[in-house]
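EI: anyone free to look at a 584-residue chain?
SC: sure, send it
EI:
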Amino acid sequence: MARLRVAACQINTVVGDLEGNARRILGALSEAEGDGADLAVFPELTVTGYPPEDLLSRPAFIADNLAVFARIAASTGACAAVVGYVDTDPSGRLVNAAAVCVDGRVAGRYFKRLLPNYGVFDEQRWFIPGEGPPTRYVVAAVPVGVTICEDMWSAAGPMAEQAAAGARLLVNLNASPYSQGRRTERLEVVADRVAETGCPIVYVNQVGGQDELVFDGASVMVDAAGAIVASAGQFVEEVLVADLDVDPGGLPPDADAGTVTVSTRPQRTSMARAANRLAPVLDPEAEVYEALVLGTRDYVAKNGFTDAVIGLSGGIDSSLVAAIAVDALGSGRVHGVTMPSRYSSDGSVADAVTLAANLGVAVATVPIEEAHRALSSSLAPLLGGETSGLTDENLQSRIRGVLLMALSNARGWIVLTTGNKSEMATGYSTLYGDSAGGFAVIKDVPKTLVYALCRYRNRRAGFDLIPDPVLTKAPSAELRPDQRDDESLPPYSVLDPVVAGYVEGDRSADDLIAAGLDPGAVARVVALVDRAEYKRRQMPPGVRISGKAFGKDRRMPITNHYRSGVAGPDGPSGRPGGEQPAVV
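SC: here you go
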């Protein structure tokens, strides 16, 4: 039995920051070498960051990526490094590549064979699949097989071929975005490949936020019996170093044809064992919360902002966004603004001020009554009287959006919007009002989960960080007297399962009714979802935490006459495009 010391380099890259990514790679490699690693494995497309999307259409970007990769390869020492980058095949077509580098040279290259083209993935848009017989890279006398992300998800796929060809350790480079339950799903796939191949597996995932995607890391090393030997933390950068006991086996008779000797270090059967780390696993609510924090922190920082501003209404959504922002950026870099109207309750204003005090956030109060009266009067000649109804409600929301965006212009702060997935799904929002901003922190979080996350954050704080009245009062936009969300929408406990089934599960209205959901609620919610597509296209990006978020995952046509089952052609109002008010 041979012992190989492996470093899983779970780093936070930035798409397009080729030089910065090179520094991150070489820094992690230096750490791995300092810990005596024989092999350091990096995430998928480490050099470019993932996903580079249509940067891949630019020849200069490809050339610069290759030049930076060459410098990284030339900087390697005795510890072999497996690095992801973009390469070209002999015909000049792009491939998603991983190179095994050691002692300043490239020992071999692997091109990703299975290219995902579903959900948030569009790899067939840019890459062609790799071909050719499997190659074994011998590191410290251990034959190692290299694969990239999707290659692991196929039974009898590239990993099985490599094991059959003599590989005894399999490494897999990943850029696997987070969604709820994803870690468990990955571990099941790793266990399947171990059972199929009889080989230990090193699974390395990137960490960090990239636009609406957030990568959770959670890299693992699993032995040949399927037991987790070492695991990295979730949502944190880490160089995870562990020792794997590997049966080097015997190579097949034609081994010379597919074997590349990378490292001539002898088998390390007697070296002192590394302190293999098993990171604690977050519970479901903590996992989602940390995804939102990391996604927010990285979006703000990677796009050159330092501070954020939030409209604090005293409602539950803005309270959660404020807590996430403070945990992501620090209280001194988060700014709250209350913008009471004639309909704002004293309790809501007090709750917003209490929340800000609990979070250590400076808060300013800017009443909107004067602007509301002025704009209403200006519109009166056009409307034949003072504004009323939905027009008046949305006018208030737009005044608040204008104020927040003015602060963004004047101070350079990014505006964090506060709409949740339930509102996003049903169009319960105001275009150019509460939807105006740079980043929608909780756009993929349904309202029922918003409540759960607030209670989780309070438990973590050990007191009502988010004031109890925020959690117990009826949700309201407070844009007209005695307004309640459940006057415009079904209760969120009824609404959210319909949204989950229709949006995330792609189930028809009839399927949802057959599954036991209320027919009236299904008809109402499905119609609202269908007619709100044009509004969602104009919303800012936000953190993806579900299996299907609005954005990269779900690409529905705006002009679309198909309606699912019982909802009818135009929904309950008989007209598309009517706006609903929303919590600011």
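EI: The longest helix spans residues 389-411.
SC: 👍
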